[in-house]
Specification:
single chain; alpha/beta; 4 helices; globular
Length: 140
């Protein structure tokens, strides 16, 4: 049982458009952590909408991303997060000492169909499971 003062770990996923990789990662972390981890995602140059192939690929696993909207990366979002996972945003991601940074090299699903997005989705899921285990050691 957590006490009211216990603070959940927080993770920010960042990619350029916040339309594919970071949205899938955020959706997986939200779902698989059962609310035990605070989740944010953003993009250095957000797209107008989430990649439809990413939405379809996640829906195949029962995760609905259809109402998600790409968000712009802010300095505040980075400051408020314990872990910052970058996915190809390069030098546009702000850096703050004391934060845990991970750079996940993943293929960009932009402009690809659902068949090409599935392996990216599956790789993200595996990385999310490892991330959860590192943040919540008792997680199964």
């Amino acid at each position: 049982m957590t006490t009211p003062t216990a603070r959940k770990p927080s993770v920010l996923f960042v990619c350029v458009h916040n339309a594919g990789r970071s949205q899938m990662a955020a959706a997986f972390l939200t779902t698989l952590s059962d609310g035990a981890i605070e989740v944010r995602s953003a993009g250095s140059q957000p797209a107008d909408k989430v990649n439809p192939a990413a939405v379809e690929a996640m829906a195949e696993l029962g995760i609905d991303m259809s109402s998600e909207i790409p968000k712009v990366l802010t300095t505040e979002a980075v400051k408020e997060s314990d872990v910052v996972v970058t996915m190809g945003c390069g030098d546009e991601c702000p850096y703050f000492p004391g934060k845990r940074y991970e750079d996940w090299v993943l293929e960009d699903p932009a402009g690809q169909g659902v068949d090409a997005v599935r392996p990216i989705r599956d790789e993200i899921k595996t990385r999310i499971e490892n991330l959860i285990a590192s943040l919540i050691p008792a997680a199964k």
